[in-house]
Design brief:
alpha/beta, Protein-Tyrosine Phosphatase, Chain A, 6-stranded mixed sheet, 41% helix, 14% strand, globular
Length: 183
């Protein structure tokens, strides 16, 4: 099984859809709690319509979206470990939806969508990891960069672990992040 993820931060709608098509995505699963965006084309209805025109189905999985209180806490204290811990507790309680996503991933090539360009700083990585744990065989988790069309293949051992500051710098270089936090 292969699970793709993508963040649309810094990309245009055309770059984003082109990446999905290049990788053969059949179903885009939106894992944002609120599928709204100030960026043209990335709110639920518009995104679904544009995907449909390109032969890609859309599914909004609100249940695995990060709840507002957790997001708000991170915005206030910038404590990624605290955010991760709170989100993983929440995700553990979303078993039925994780099983549903696992079944969707078995049937077709699925890509999980959120905003953040860097998968190491986005809850979609934890969702992908949780889905992969249900597979009896190994599951590949690939993170697509919609601008360069490149893919990152993190080596995940067990539950996703938080990078330490030194390794996060290495990961940032690996994901080719700019000073602005974009690819």
């Amino acid at each position: 099984m292969r699970i793709l993820t993508i963040g649309y931060e810094g990309s245009t709608l055309n770059e984003f859809i082109s990446s999905l098509k290049i990788w053969g995505v059949e179903l885009l699963v939106d894992v944002r709690e609120m599928p709204l965006s100030r960026k043209k084309g990335f709110s639920k209805t518009s995104l679904r319509e544009n995907l449909q025109l390109n032969g890609i189905r859309y599914y909004h999985s609100k249940a695995v979206g990060c709840p507002k209180p957790i997001r708000k806490g991170y915005k206030e204290d910038k404590n990624w470990q605290k955010y991760t811990s709170a989100y993983l507790r929440y995700l553990d309680a979303q078993g039925d939806e994780v099983v549903n996503l696992f079944e969707l991933c078995q049937e077709q090539l699925v890509c999980l969508l959120c905003f953040e360009a860097n998968p190491l700083r986005c809850h979609r990585t934890y969702v992908a990891d949780q889905i992969s744990r249900l597979s009896s065989s190994s599951a590949d988790i690939l993170h697509i960069n919609p601008i360069t069309k490149e893919v990152a293949v993190p080596q995940l051992m067990g539950r996703v672990t938080l990078p330490q500051p030194a390794s996060f710098q290495a990961a940032s270089a690996y994901y080719q992040l700019s000073d602005a936090g974009l690819y």
